[in-house]
Amino acid sequence: MMSDTLLRKLEITREKMIQSGLEKGFLNDETIRLSEKLDQLLNLYQFHTTNDVNDYDKLD
């Protein structure tokens, strides 16, 4: 399922961001890049889950 793959990417990116922040600092370019990537993945996940719910509503 698409959301399972997306959830895994979210978790991996979150872990990398936290590790980068702890090792390099929270204002480090890589940490910020990972934070922005995580934001994009979260937006994508929210879009897909919202549309899935809306698609189910249309079946009634």
TrEMBL record:
It comes from the Bacteria. It holds the Pfam family SpoOE-like. InterPro entries: HLH_DNA-bd_sf, Spo0E-like, Spo0E-like_sf. This is Aspartyl-phosphate phosphatase Spo0E family protein.
